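B., you asked whether I could sanity-check this one before it goes into the benchmark set. Here's the sequence:
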Amino acid sequence: MIVYHGSSEIITKPDVLHSYRQLDFGQGFYVTALKEQAARWARRKAGLNAGIGIVNCYDMEEELTGLKYKTFSDDLYEWIDFVCKCRDGELEYNEL
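And here's what the prediction gave me:
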């Protein structure tokens, strides 16, 4: 599966240890299957760092054993509800 990560730098070896702060779902390395979504994040990060935006692309194995992940259906409301609960402290990222 191809996934993307928007950044202001090239990241050849993703890891969760360099997450600079607690994000919506906790510390981690965030990716998306949507290239345009990653491009928007890259542009945003470039603007914050007065640099250029980079979309990193990875070929992720389909087998996710040992990883914590959350998959959403096409129901946008399910995703919005989840994000709001995380931001309000109703859910912890370790509950994924």
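One thing to flag: The chain has one domain: 2-95. Otherwise nothing jumped out at me.
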